[in-house]
Amino acid sequence: MKIAVAGTGYVGLSLATLLSLKHEVVALDVIEEKVNMINDRVSPIKDEYIEKYFREKELNLKATLDYKEAFEGAKFIIISTPTNYDDELDFFDTSSVEDIIMKVKSLGLDTTMVVKSTIPVGFIESMKEKHNIDNIMFSPEFLREGKALYDNLYPSRIIVGEKSDRAIEFANLLKESCLKEDVVVKFMDSTEAEAVKLFANTYLALRVSFFNELDTYAELKGLNTKDIIDGVCLDPRIGDHYNNPSFGYGGYCLPKDTKQLLANYQNVPQNMIEAIVKSNDTRKDHVADMIVKKGANVVGVYRLTMKSGSDNFRSSAIQGVIERLNDKGLEVIIYEPTLKEDLFDGLKVINDLEEFKSISDVIVANRLEDNLNDVKEKVYTRDFFSRD
What we know:
2 domains
């Protein structure tokens, strides 16, 4: 079977890699450098399993800049292009997804489109009505940055937003490539599937916010955060997972999905969803205030990335902390080895680690790594468990 994948970020590239184990996959992107890298079997994103499969597996995978080459003859077209929510304009930018829909329609294809991008509740139904089409459905993804292919190989669940033969066929495509046995597959309407995605990510943001606010309390009261979290999480109803404090939630999904869900609550009573969104700003305010109290002349920020094993720093919480430190007039320098430039948002980037350590009066690290062990007395972090 030929399958097309539009967009080669974490979602698209992990799915393209997974499905190309057993099928012909043509991946479409608009960036020539990424297309060339994929064809040379060099992963354009940092993901251990994608890199491993690119080295070791026979993949029937080709990347292209030509949408006609990608789409013609494909049984399914997976849409995994980037979307973003603008909270100031209260607008979810889904133009990249709609562009693919219009390209498919322009070719006269009745190929089934499966949207994997994050979209607002009701998007699929609105596209069916707007473009007078029926060959489209939604299937949410539940992937972690840096572990996207692993999470496709061992999925927590497979959800397809349609109850039909083609939905079953698509679910089986994903299931047959899994290494996990007895994967739960659930079919529902696309609107409910869209809601699942937003509510799942908002719950994760809630959990992050809860343990961050626990840590804020403990820090200001002079208590041992780790002891409290260990004691709380021994309750099996709470569980010892997703409980490591940080500077806030960030990345591709949680910030925009929480804000999008809050926007969907117009005329619906709520308190908690709004609190989750506000809590993330409050946490960054607190972290910045605690750094200021250190009285440092130069604050060194160790890594802009969201988490270990990732090269993404889109909407990373540390950037919000940096903005607040700038507003307070502190000198900030950055250590981020994935950056080739000497400046980031006007701030000096120093990628000689020893020089960075020596210049910094305080080193701010969202996640600890071993190469900071020799300067622990300088490090400000809320990482108590050395994991994400």
